[in-house]
Design brief:
Layout: H1 2-11, E1 21-23, H2 40-50, E2 54-56, E3 61-65, E4 68-71, E5 76-78, H3 92-97, E6 113-114, E7 117-121, H4 145-164, E8 178-184, E9 187-194, E10 202-208, H5 209-228
The structure holds flavin-adenine dinucleotide.
C-alpha cells in the first residue's frame, strides 16, 4: 500500500510535499513474517531507500489519536492520513466455539482436520501456523489466497475420501508453498517460496514491470473462474 501511495503522489507531483513513514512489527524490511524470502530484505531496503520512504521496524503502537500515533518507545508520529492493520486474530465464531486456540486459529493435522474432531476441517486464513522464529515484536506467518486455495483443494479431496472411500492426501500446512504477485506502485514483484516456511527448496524474488501486467491478467482470470464456478481450473 505504501508503494501505491508513493506512486500516486509522484504522479500528482506532490511527493516532495508529503513525507511517508512505514511502521512495522517486522524486525527488518522484507521479513514478511517469514524470516525473509531469498533477497527480500535487500530488495525492500533498496526500494524504501530509492523511494525515500522512512521505515520504523520492531515497532509497537500504544495509541492512535486524531492526527497522531504513539509508539511504545515514546516516539510520536503526526499524520494527515494513516492506515494501520491491528494484530491479526481469528473470528469470534471460532474463539467462542472453543475449537481454536486462544487467538482463534484452528490447529489442523496434515489432512486439514482438527485432531480432536476429525469430521471438522479447517483451511485458509483460519488455520494457525507457528511463527518461523522469535522476533522482538511478535510477527505472524502471513496466509495468502494462493495458500488458501491449495489447502481448500486438499481438504475437499479428503472430505470426498471420507464420504466415498479412497485414500486421503497428507500435505501439512508447513509444506505448502506460496506464489505472490505483489503490487509495488509502478511495478510489482513475483515471490515464490516453496515451502512458504524455511528451509526452502525453491525461492524466486523478482521485481519487474511485467509482473504488474501478470497480476492484472490473473485477477481477471481468477474472478471469471470464480464467477463460472470452474474451480477445477488451476490457480
Ligand atoms: C488487504 C488484503 C490484501 C490481500 N492481497 C492478497 C493478494 O494479493 N494475494 C493473495 O494471494 N492473498 C491476498 N490476501 C490474503 C487473502 O485475501 C486471504 O488469504 C484469503 O482471502 C483467505 O481466504 P479464506 O477463505 O480463508 O478467508 P476469507 O476470504 O476471509 O473468507 C472467510 C469468510 O467467512 C465469513 N465469515 C466470518 N465469520 C463468519 C460467521 N460467523 N459465519 C459465517 N461466515 C463467516 C467472512 O465474511 C468471509 O466471507 C490479502 C488479504 C488482505 C486483507
Amino acid at each position: 500500500m505504501i508503494f501505491e501511495i508513493d506512486h500516486l503522489l509522484r504522479k500528482m507531483g506532490r511527493r516532495s510535499k508529503t513525507p511517508l513513514c512505514f511502521v512495522t512489527a517486522e524486525p527488518y524490511l522484507g521479513h514478511f513474517g517469514l524470516g525473509g524470502v531469498g533477497k527480500s530484505r535487500r530488495l525492500m531496503e533498496d526500494e524504501f531507500a530509492e523511494k525515500d520512504i522512512k521505515a520504523l521496524c520492531s515497532a509497537t503502537v500504544d495509541e492512535i489519536i486524531p492526527g497522531r500515533v504513539k509508539l511504545n518507545d515514546g516516539t510520536e508520529l503526526p499524520f494527515n492520513y494513516s492506515m494501520f492493520a491491528p494484530p491479526f486474530r481469528g473470528v469470534d465464531a471460532i474463539i467462542n466455539s472453543g475449537l481454536g486456540n486462544p487467538k482463534g486459529w484452528l490447529m489442523v493435522d496434515e489432512y486439514y482436520r482438527l485432531p480432536k474432531h476429525q469430521n471438522i476441517y479447517g483451511v485458509g486464513v483460519s488455520v494457525g501456523i507457528m511463527p518461523v522464529e522469535p522476533t522482538p515484536v511478535p510477527t505472524g506467518v502471513p496466509k495468502t489466497g494462493n495458500m488458501t486455495t491449495n489447502m481448500a483443494k486438499l481438504a475437499a479431496h479428503n472430505i470426498a475420501a471420507d464420504i466415498q472411500g479412497g485414500s486421503k492426501i497428507a500435505y501439512p500446512v508447513t509444506e505448502i508453498g506460496v506464489v505472490c504477485l505483489a503490487d509495488m506502485g509502478d511495478s510489482a514483484s513475483l515471490m515464490v517460496a516453496k515451502p512458504a516456511l524455511p528451509p526452502r527448496q525453491q525461492t524466486i524474488l523478482k521485481k519487474k514491470r511485467w509482473v504488474r501486467w501478470a497480476k492484472l491478467g490473473f485477477e481477471r482470470y481468477f474472478m471469471t473462474k470464480m464467477k463460472l464456478g470452474a474451480t477445477y481450473l488451476p490457480g
